[in-house]
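Most newcomers find our protein records easier to grasp once they have seen one. There is nothing in a record beyond a sequence line and a structure line. Getting from the letters to the tokens is the skill we practise here. An example says more than a description, so a record of this kind follows:
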Amino acid sequence: MKKQFSKILFFIASVFLTSCAGFLPAPEDQPVSDNSAVVALMDTARADIAKGNLDAAVAPLERALRIEPHNALLWQGLSKLRLQQGQYQQAEGLAARSNGWAGSNKALRAENWRIIGEARLKRGDHQGAQAAFDKAATQRN
């Protein structure tokens, strides 16, 4: 009974935190770079994703990262793509790397922690997911 209550509470908290993340400025709304080549590569990746061609979207993102390896938005973009592809461990690592370059950008850091939480949840790591969602929530303060 206690375990079932804990799972229900975890589910409610996850839904709440996920919906709260929507109130933060979306990182996609930020310009990804001042470099036109990086912007063009990101646009290509987004077009591939919109067409449902996730595998094709990886190459332009990786090329953009070779141009700007310290760009937190690009790392996050690749993390989201890996999450969509079901590569949860890789998504978590890429989101953590994005956090390493995010500096004081709380919205970006919160979204990365949300991605990490979702990846952990998909892998069945409920405690790790909760910890990540908690960190996402603290970024809003």
About this structure: Residues 95 and 112 are 5 Å apart (CA to CA). Residues 11-27 have pLDDT under 50 and may be disordered.
